[in-house]
Amino acid sequence: MPAAQLSAAQLHELILPLAQPPQVVLGPEQTIDEALRAIRSAPSSANSIHYFYVVDGDNRLVGVVPTRRLLTAAPEQKVAEVMVDNVEAIPDWATVLIASEYFATRRLLAFPVVNGKGQLVGVVDVSLFTD
Questions:
Q1: How, if at all, do strands 51-55 and 61-66 pair?
Q2: Given CA atoms 62, 68, 69, 70 in this order, what sign does their dihedral have?
Q3: How far apart are alpha carbons 29 and 78 in whole angstroms?
């Protein structure tokens, strides 16, 4: 939903219903080759994927791999070797207004949304706030 369509009342609603499921999640022990094969075989309905999120066996967010880093890594490298492990994530209790502040202050194109256990529950793309 573009920013022009967000009303003042909607700014105080939870962000979670507006989050999309991640298109692809990666595991830290996957090789880059395995990760790329998984990405290629996944059905994609997204116009653009800016980042790939890395989760552990309990679906806890443990890292993020920017697309450029994934594409330039050696095929035999592990995802854990190229991922950024200090991930900025929006908590699932955040409002639309709080989420918009993440985009304004951190200048990323998408953010993962996590629950209280640190599990990945969705992704919010900057397109929610832009035309």
A1: antiparallel
A2: positive
A3: 6
**What single-letter amino acid sits at 51?**
Y
Task: State both tokens at 99.
Answer: 């989420």
Q: How many CA atoms lie within 13 A of 55 on its CB side?
A: 18
Q: How many CB atoms lie within 10 A of CB 37?
A: 13
If one counts every other C-beta atom within 10 angstroms of the C-beta of residue 65, the result is 22
Distance CA 5, CA 8 (A): 10
Give the per-residue SS3 of the chain.
Answer: CCHHHCCCCHHHCECHHHCECCCCEECCCCEHHHHHHHHHHCCCCCCCCCEEEEECCCCEEEEEEEHHHHHHCCCCCEHHHHCECCCCCEECCCEHHHHHHHHHHHCCCEEEEECCCCEEEEEEEHHHHCC
pTM for the predicted model, two decimal places: 0.87
pLDDT tens sequence across 27-81:
999 999 999 999 988 876 555 678 999 999 999 999 999 999 999 999 999 999 9
